[in-house]
Automatic annotation (TrEMBL):
Residues 30-83, 448-480 are annotated as: Disordered. GO terms for molecular function: ATP binding; ATP hydrolysis activity. Keywords: ATP-binding, Nucleotide-binding. Gene3D superfamilies: 1.10.8.60, P-loop containing nucleotide triphosphate hydrolases. It comes from Natronolimnobius baerhuensis. This is AAA family ATPase. Residues 467-480 have a biased composition (Basic and acidic residues).
Length: 480
């Protein structure tokens, strides 16, 4: 019997059990099933004002999925990924299809139960809370409904639910500006994982600490420790701040809400303060989730300068919202990030209880990062330590660019296997571009900028091996 049959029977059983047992809610359905039956909305009373009575009991969220769940070839295909769902089960004697509506039914549920029970194990049952409950008392299985529910991803982390929520909060008119300001990603859409990141011991310790705090938030609440769960990531661009926040979301299966502060520009001022509030409301409704506020220095900068009053108001709204959100009470982990810690004022620093430093990687870390990013690549005579030695001052992001350059360069020669030499060339190339970027346009380098001048070989198209000796401190020694 094929897996396809098992998949489809599981689907048929689930829809049948779920339709009959009204105590089950959407968190009892595997994500791939509820995506099919989700009818939109987030189940709150949408006509009511949004002054929020946080009472999201499962009762008033249930309306997103309507009973009975209809099992048709269409819904079965979508939920299980089986191309020909009816073909997969048509030979079984307890299935039937209505030609006209395309609906598939179980004619003898006891038979179907038995057939299914003979073929699944605990592990699989635990992925389907509806069936875990159904078979809980069955002798062959050692599963509980509760365990399966705990393991099932909550509806809050599904894209469909997130979309419904965003629609509810941000109406058509401010949709566009709002999309510039916030970006919400379901954990399944985050493709960054902690395995892909090379972290310092200090970073690992801090992240461990915060996962523990999240795990034990009831305890922390009970002993009155509430000032916890606001992290500030500090470090130069390209050192992994955004990636680490995303990887945490993926690791803990939490939605990732990102606010881009630079998007609070005068262009939208009328609505901005309101949208900042809405963003925090959304985060609370999505909880548990991670709220990532990038470019936090923007806050301080705005407060200091003589900016537009409305802009200051928006920033003050933001600071107040930061104060009012809590990991313990709202289950929102707030992570701020900045490339310019020197520009943060006291008011900003004070709001974070842990500061995590993202330094430029040292040689050992660079070698590790190189190993991680080349995991899927073929590189002859690859020596990450040697490359690390000649890339001091480069960040993880820079190293990624170097590798990309090497790959593309090799492709121009139709090669998909790289060599250590390709990498060394790409490093050199990177350094040249970097020194162009850092060139002082006003002083010293003027001569080099004159057309026809040879900018340290930057324009070389692989001709002569060039003067060599690209040092890595970006000093501007392009004179000749
Ligand atoms: N420590 C690191 N380990 C692995 N990859 C890294 C590291 N630091 C940066 N990167 C890579 O560099 C890129 C940019 O990182 P990002 O998180 O956007 O940096 P930041 O937010 O600090 O500017 C990402 O693709 C990331 O994977
Ligand atoms: Mg970033």
């Amino acid at each position: 019997m094929s897996d396809a049959a098992l998949d489809v029977v599981e689907f048929l059983l689930t829809t049948s059990v779920y339709s009959d047992d009204r105590t089950l809610d959407e968190n009892d359905l595997p994500p791939s099933y509820r995506r099919v039956f989700w009818t939109g909305g987030t189940g709150s009373n949408e006509s009511e004002d949004d002054s929020e009575d946080e009472s999201d009991t499962s009762a008033d969220r249930r309306q997103g999925i309507t009973r009975p769940l209809s099992a048709t070839t269409g819904t079965a295909r979508e939920a299980t990924g089986v191309d020909q769902p009816w073909n997969a089960v048509s030979e079984l004697m307890f299935t039937e299809r209505d030609e006209f509506s395309g609906s598939i039914t179980l004619t003898q549920t006891e038979l179907a139960d038995r057939w299914f029970a003979d073929r699944v194990d605990d592990e699989r049952l635990l992925e389907n809370p509806t069936l875990a409950k159904h078979f809980e008392a069955h002798d062959d299985f050692d599963v509980t409904h509760e365990a399966a529910r705990e393991q099932n991803r909550p509806i809050h982390a599904d894209r469909v639910w997130i979309d419904g929520l965003l629609e509810e909060y941000f109406n058509e008119d401010d949709d566009e500006e709002m999309l510039d300001l916030v970006d919400v990603r379901a954990p399944e859409e985050v493709d960054m994982s902690l395995d892909d990141l090379v972290l310092t011991d200090d970073q690992e310790n801090e992240l461990d600490k915060i996962s523990k705090a999240i795990e034990h938030r009831d305890y922390l609440s009970a002993i009155g420790l509430r000032e916890i769960g606001k992290l500030l990531f500090v470090g130069p661009p390209g050192t992994g701040k955004t990636s680490t926040a995303q990887a945490l979301a993926q690791d803990m299966d939490l939605p990732f809400v990102e606010v881009k502060l630079s998007m609070i520009t005068s262009q939208y001022l009328g609505e901005t303060a309101k949208n900042v509030d809405k963003t925090f409301e959304v985060a609370k409704r999505l909880s548990p989730c991670i709220l990532f506020i990038d470019e936090f220095d923007f806050v301080a900068k705005t407060r200091r300068s003589d900016e537009h009053a409305a802009l200051k108001r928006a920033v003050n709204t933001l600071l107040k919202a930061v104060d009012n959100i809590s990991l313990i009470d709202d289950e929102v982990l707030l992570i701020g990030a900045t490339n310019h810690p020197d520009q943060l004022d006291d008011a900003a620093w004070r709001r974070f209880d842990e500061i995590i430093n993202f330094p430029k990687p040292d040689s050992g870390m660079r070698a590790d990062i190189l190993s991680v990013i080349t995991r899927q690549m073929q590189i002859e005579e690859f020596d990450p330590h040697l490359i690390a030695d000649v890339t001091s001052g480069l960040t993880g992001s820079d190293l990624r660019m170097v590798l990309r350059e090497a790959v593309l360069e090799a492709l121009t020669e139709d090669r998909t296997t790289l060599t250590q030499k390709d990498l060394l060339n790409a490093v050199e190339e990177f350094e040249e571009r970097d020194s162009l970027k850092n060139m002082d346009m006003i002083e010293g380098d003027h001569d080099a900028l004159v057309a026809g001048g040879d900018i340290g070989g930057a324009a070389s198209d692989g001709g002569e091996p060039d003067s060599g000796g690209h040092d890595h401190d970006h000093s501007h020694d392009h004179d000749h």
